[in-house]
Amino acid sequence: MSPANPLVADWRLRSWVAEAEDGSVVLPLGDRPVGILVYSPDGTMMTTIAPPDRPAIESRDPLRGGPDQERRSAAETFIAYSGRYAYDGTDVIHTVEMSLYPNWVGTRQVRHVRLSADGTVLELSTDPSMIAGRTAVQRLTWERDVR
Prior knowledge:
By secondary structure, the protein is mostly beta strands. It has one helix at residues 68-76, and strands at 9-19, 25-26, 34-39, 44-50, 79-87, 91-99, 108-115, 121-125, 129-131, 134-144.
């Protein structure tokens, strides 16, 4: 762990909970989502998130293969973006350069940071935002990858 920046690491997703203002809770990608989040020392970040066990598409062509519904389902169940980041001790700001969701390109995605005392568990939360058709605070809990 970098003493100047405790986020520098590879992280594995442990949970994603969406909490609405009325107190209701939804698990946007189920109870066992998978994800990787990387913060590099040079200020680059990237993340991918999906539900486990996504079905394969009936094609070997990753750009144009398979039935439309299979490709649509694959895109609807996957989040991927990358770019630069800045950490101020309270928030991390992701400046999105590439994203599966094109509307995020060029935006700043602010995440509020809570880090466990031993630096092994990272919680990133959003201000209320729209995900999966509902507005809620998104809380993603990550665990430092120690491989």
